Task: inverse folding
């Protein structure tokens, strides 16, 4: 976590009038540390902000987090404490009986007394396998532009727009990796595999970026990314317990899923307990704690301790790649290597180092280079 705080910027009178309402909503939800500031103080805090802003709501505890290592840490801790993790095993059919369910996958059949459906973009499809048809996922495409690390001095806080009923809007934010992020868009589409960027999306983002932080236009773009959120007909999560069936659905969880994950987990355990699952508390001394290497720039990274660097843009060492072979949850493909080390994600996008990175990672994982480069199924 990197502490930055956020500024919810009002660009017109209507947005400015909404700031007290948003502060009151935060207070009603238990967070009372917001504050409104005028344009003068706003520009003192963010001197590179574009002209025309009228004020802002300060959210001092909105910070940056590493979005890749967090879910990986959850999975690692689960496996270290006895969970069996199946990967590349999508559920294709479900057979239910009085004593539980059989989940059929290409990797084999899993028997379970209780099932939690947290299948993301496939959440509604799995929901229907259990006989329910209460929501449909229509993917919401979000395109993001990531600027070079040299752009980082331009912005000190997360710069948020005033949200609308349908989207939280386009933001400008530093990242824990030292870049600056602009996005996302919010376009409803039908294709659950449409992760390619679009000319229209990037043009819209750049236009908004010129307004929010005009100096960004002169900065180098490192990459454009696209993510799909599992949006549904409703704005809220679709958390449904079918107690007699011993089935829990956690659907429609979009961008806020990362920060809400621990709260959702607590809610899910409580619902499963209500459905009859025995959930005894574990002895704290018996829990295996895990700590993963830091990928953020706010804390020391491994390269500072020496060693041969293979990816120079992101300063990833050979030792970090060799350590992948000892990981509790090792990567299965090159995307997994990227998310665990930052390798190939810098300015050259792997132009200078792909061969060495792939060779080192494949050796560590006991795979051929072709196997590592193969797309997941």
Result:
């Amino acid at each position: 976590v990197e502490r930055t705080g956020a500024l919810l910027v009002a660009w017109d009178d209507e947005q400015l009038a909404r700031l007290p309402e948003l502060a009151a909503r935060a207070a009603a939800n238990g967070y009372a540390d917001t504050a409104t500031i005028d344009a003068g103080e706003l520009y003192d805090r963010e001197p590179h902000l574009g002209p025309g802003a009228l004020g802002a709501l300060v959210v001092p505890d909105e910070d940056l987090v590493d979005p890749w290592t967090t879910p990986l840490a959850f999975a690692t801790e689960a496996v270290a404490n006895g969970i069996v993790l199946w990967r590349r095993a999508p559920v294709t059919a479900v057979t239910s009986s009085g004593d539980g369910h059989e989940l059929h996958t290409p990797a084999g059949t899993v028997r379970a007394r209780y099932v939690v459906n947290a299948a993301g973009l496939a959440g509604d499809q799995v929901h229907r396998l259990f006989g329910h048809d209460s929501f449909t996922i229509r993917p919401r495409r979000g395109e993001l532009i990531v600027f070079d690390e040299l752009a980082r001095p331009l912005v000190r806080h997360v710069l948020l727009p005033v949200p609308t009923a349908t989207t939280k809007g386009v933001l400008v934010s530093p990242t824990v990796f030292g870049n600056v992020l602009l996005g996302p868009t919010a376009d409803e589409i039908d294709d659950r595999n449409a992760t390619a960027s679009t000319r229209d999306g990037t043009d819209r983002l750049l236009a908004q970026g010129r307004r929010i932080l005009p100096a960004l236009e002169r900065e180098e773009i490192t990459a454009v990314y696209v993510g799909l959120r599992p949006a549904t007909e409703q704005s809220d999560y679709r958390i449904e317990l079918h107690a007699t069936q011993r089935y829990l659905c956690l659907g429609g969880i979009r961008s806020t899923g990362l920060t809400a994950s621990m709260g959702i987990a607590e809610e899910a355990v409580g619902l499963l307990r209500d459905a009859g699952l025995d959930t005894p508390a574990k002895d704290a001394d018996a829990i295996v704690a895990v700590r993963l290497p830091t990928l953020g720039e706010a804390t020391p990274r491994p390269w500072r301790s020496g060693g041969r660097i293979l990816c120079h843009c992101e300063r990833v060492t050979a030792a970090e790649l060799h350590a992948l072979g000892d990981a509790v949850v090792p990567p299965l493909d090159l995307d997994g290597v990227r998310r665990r080390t930052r390798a190939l994600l810098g300015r050259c996008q792997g132009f200078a180092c792909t061969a060495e990175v792939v060779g080192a990672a494949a050796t560590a994982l006991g795979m051929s280079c072709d196997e590592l480069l193969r797309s997941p199924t």
In short: The mean pLDDT is 95. The longest helix spans residues 257-274.
